[in-house]
């Protein structure tokens, strides 16, 4: 039995196919080895990108921050949350003088945001109940970090916690203040619904 050209071509074809299959397997294995390490570090990189770096940015004292309240046209309008200073100048409908949230401008509004409050006694304070943490982080990340540039850091300061004042249920001024607070909360509700951070159901639940 001699070696026929047909048999030789057939065997060579089978060897080529087997060789190609081996190369495909090796190529796939190489790609897999490269992709898996990248996939492992991707969540960490995404997490680091959530909050922009503040190294090299201006350090504000609380007194300096008060000067960026929108009354000086040559200065930006700033607010602080969680030690980060945000430039909110672009939001002319809310933070400039005469607008609904002008009292927040140039202030640390960490507690105000967590407590969903516009009370003066909650400004320039960073303390708030632990149960408010999830709500605060939603607003901090979803509104401020997402919408406004971070332009600096707020240096540590002594937060002045006001003494609680006794009041009776028949105290008319206290009731008037409560009604005014309800009206402003209604404005805040509309604001958070407008920026798309909270749905109508969520805002109603928070106000209870």
TrEMBL record:
Gene Ontology, cellular component aspect: endomembrane system; membrane
InterPro entries linked to this entry: Cyt_B5-like_heme/steroid-bd, Cyt_B5-like_heme/steroid_sf, MAPR/NEUFC/NENF-like
Alphabetic keyword roster: Membrane, Transmembrane, Transmembrane helix
SUPFAM superfamilies, sorted: Cytochrome b5-like heme/steroid binding domain
Residues of the Cytochrome b5 heme-binding domain: 60-155
Segments traversing the membrane: 21-41
One Pfam family here: Cyt-b5
Family: Belongs to the cytochrome b5 family. MAPR subfamily.
Protein name: Cytochrome b5 heme-binding domain-containing protein
């Amino acid at each position: 039995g001699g070696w026929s050209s047909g048999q030789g071509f057939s065997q060579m074809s089978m060897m080529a196919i087997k060789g190609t299959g081996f190369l495909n397997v090796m190529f796939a294995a190489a790609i897999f080895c490269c992709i898996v390490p990248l996939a492992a570090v991707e969540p960490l990189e995404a997490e680091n990108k959530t909050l922009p770096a503040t190294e090299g940015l201006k350090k504000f004292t609380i007194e300096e921050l008060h000067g960026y309240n929108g009354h000086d046209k040559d200065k930006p309008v700033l607010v602080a949350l969680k030690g980060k200073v945000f430039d909110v100048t672009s939001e002319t409908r809310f933070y400039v003088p005469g607008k609904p949230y002008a009292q927040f401008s140039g202030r640390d509004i960490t507690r105000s945001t967590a407590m969903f409050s516009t009370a003066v006694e909650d400004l320039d304070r960073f303390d708030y109940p632990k149960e408010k943490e999830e709500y605060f982080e939603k607003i901090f990340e979803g509104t401020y970090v997402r919408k406004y540039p971070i332009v600096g850091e707020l240096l540590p300061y002594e937060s002045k916690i006001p003494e609680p004042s006794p009041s009776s249920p028949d105290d008319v001024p206290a009731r008037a203040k409560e009604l005014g607070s309800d009206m402003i909360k209604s404005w805040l509700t509309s604001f958070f619904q407008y920026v798309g951070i909270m749905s109508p159901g969520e805002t109603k639940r928070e106000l209870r």
